[in-house]
Amino acid sequence: MAHIIVVGNEKGGAGKSTVSMHISTALARLGKRVGVLDLDLRQRSLGRYIENREAYCQREGIKLPTPIYMPLPEIDKSKLETGENPFDKRLYSAIEELKPQVDFLLIDCPGSHTRLSQVAHSLADTLVTPMNDSYVDFDLLARIDPANGNILGPSVYSEMVWNARQLRAQSGMKPMDWIVLRNRLGAQHMHNKKKVGESLLKLARRIGFRVAPGFSERVIFRELFLNGLTLLDLKDAGIRSLNLSNVAARQELRDLVGELELPDIRPKF
C-alpha cells in the first residue's frame, strides 16, 4: 500500500507547491516510486512545475528523477451512482490507478476549502501543513487572545483536520501524522518570530501536531520553477558552483525529509 502524503493549508502563498515538488523529487532521488496529484484544478502549480521539468529534460537531453504526475481524470456524470459526488469519483479513480504503481503518493491541495481538499485530508497518512511565520497564517490553526496571547480554541483548518482524523478512526485506518512547517522564514531573529514559535508549540501539545522547520525565504525557489528544477538537481543541470545560500537550502531540505519520519526513508542526498 502506498503511503499517502497530503500537503495542505487553506491559505495561499505558504509555499505548498514548492514543498510538494521538493519532497516528491527527493523521494524519487532516494529510489522510491512516487506519484503526484494536484487538486488545485484551476492554477495547477505543482502540475505545471512537473511539466516544466519534463520539458527541460527533453530540451537539454538529460534524465532527472521525476515523480509520476497524473491529472484528475474526467468522468461521465451519467455513470455516477445515485448520490455519488463527481469530485470524489475523480479523486478516487486517480488514487486507484496510481497506488499500485508507487511507494508514496503525494497530494497537493489548493489554498482554499474545497470538497477535494476535504476528502484528501481524510486519506493522509502524513499531513504536511506549510505556514508563513506570522499570526495571519496562525489564525487558520487557532484563535489567539490579543491581550495575553492565550489560545482561545482551534480555528477552521484545525477543525477540518480534526474531522479528517475522526473519519480515519471510524474507518479503522491508522492515525494521521500531522506536521506543521514554519516556512519562508526570514533571516532576522525577530520578536514576532519568537512569539509565533512559542504559540505553535503550545498549540501542538493541545491539538496534536509536530512542528518542523521548512524553507527559508530564498530567491532561488522562484528561479527553479521555470525549468522544473529543485535544489537537488543543480549539479545535474550543470550548476557546479553552489553558493552558501544554495548549500544551506539543500541542508534545509535534508532536514525536512528527515523530520517527516516516512517509512524506510533516510535522506542521503
TrEMBL record:
Pfam families: MipZ. It comes from the Bacteria. This is ATPase.
